[in-house]
Amino acid sequence: MDKDMEQVLKKAEVLIEALPYIQKFNRKIIVVKYGGSAMSNEELQKNVIKDVTLLKLVGFKPIIVHGGGKEISRWVGKVGKEAQFVNGLRVTDDETMEIAEMVLGRINKQLVTMVQELGVKAVGVSGKDGGLLRVDRKYVDGKDIGFVGDIRRVDPKILYDLLEKDFLPIVAPIGLDDNFATYNINADDAACAIARAVGADKLVFLTDIEGLYKDINDKSSFIPRITVSDAEALISDGFIGGGMLPKLENCTSAVKNGVNKVHILDGRILHCLLLEIFTNEGVGTMILRDEDRQLLEENN
Question: For 214, phi and psi rounded to 5 degrees?
Answer without folding.
Answer: -70, -35
